[in-house]
Design brief:
disordered N terminus; alpha/beta; about 300 residues; 12 strands; globular
Length: about 300
């Protein structure tokens, strides 16, 4: 199954990004992540959840290699909520959601095994190609039902961690508000709620990794008030990652062009890169073992 990779060659129509003028002399723009998507898609099995109001929901589930662990071991369930338009790609959405690369054997070993769940919204487009249906409040109960079903059917899950980027980050906040203290951890990225309601999740039992680039092209970080920023940074249950520039594994400033520049919006890409640079150094000192280290610590 082909996964589109963007490079200097494919980025023919590059328009100078609004943030390039803020780059330091000698800095450079990077056009693709270091990992190659699509390598682990065959490890995710397709399932269907009935949902009469929004339409039956397709979801994909990765199951860890239980033979590598002692009998009776409990595992974490990582739930990745995709961003807008990603479900239009079908199973490739597993990669777009940020979850695919955590099926890698080395990452699984670091986390001592983890299930990975990727549900897909029933996205639709109109005759002009504009998105007309995606995540909404109506999906929240169905997402919880899929998680509950997975926990029950697998029988060896003791903690659930949820997250995603863009509208997946927004939906993550909504799930935390709808089901307080259900999740052991959450990693909302590049997407805040339209008001400050997400601040209600601070200083709770749910551990948070909150991330958003300061030059996010969709204005996600611009919507954060100074008061909200202080609240997040001072929360007892949160680690914040608000970099001046979002960077790829080669340490270049991340760029992605889809008719509009959105490289600084794609924090979920860096999460899928395990928040580790190609030279083995971490994106931030608070997570020396990257995202897998954070998952393992919960």
């Amino acid at each position: 199954m082909e996964v589109i990779e963007f490079s200097n060659e494919t980025k023919v129509d590059h328009v100078v990004a609004p943030w390039e003028k803020y780059m330091a002399p000698g800095d450079f723009v990077s056009y693709k992540p270091s990992y190659v998507g699509g390598a682990f898609l065959d490890k995710f099995e397709e399932h269907t959840q009935p949902a009469s109001d929004v339409g039956d929901i397709t979801y994909y589930l990765f199951t860890p290699d239980k033979s590598a662990y002692e009998s009776g071991k409990k595992f974490k369930l990582l739930v990745f909520i995709h961003g807008a338009t990603n479900a239009l790609a079908g199973k490739v959405c597993v990669s777009h959601s940020g979850g695919e690369m955590f099926a890698d054997a080395k990452r699984q070993a670091k986390m001592e095994g983890a299930y990975i769940l990727v549900p897909l919204a029933n996205e639709k487009t109109d005759e002009n190609g504009e998105l007309t249906d995606s995540w909404s409040e109506a999906y929240l109960k169905h997402l919880k039902a899929i998680i509950d079903r997975t926990v029950e059917e697998c029988g060896d899950i003791d903690k659930v961690i949820i997250g995603g980027g863009s509208s997946g980050g927004y939906t993550t906040w909504k799930m935390l508000l709808e089901y307080p203290d259900f999740f052991a951890g959450a990693f909302p990225a590049s997407g805040f709620t339209e008001d400050d309601s997400y601040l209600e999740t601070l200083n709770t039992n749910t551990k948070l990794f909150i991330s958003c680039a300061k030059y996010d092209e969709f204005g996600s970080f611009e919507r954060v008030t100074p008061e909200a920023l202080d609240a997040m940074k001072n929360a007892t249950n949160a680690i914040c990652f608000f970099p001046e520039f979002l960077r790829n594994g080669d340490k270049g400033v991340a760029s992605l062009y889809f008719g509009i520049e959105m490289g600084q919006h794609c924090m979920i890409t860096q999460i899928q890169a395990d928040l580790m640079y190609d030279d083995g150094t971490p994106y931030l000192p608070e997570l020396p073992e990257g995202m897998t280290g954070w998952f393992a610590s919960l």
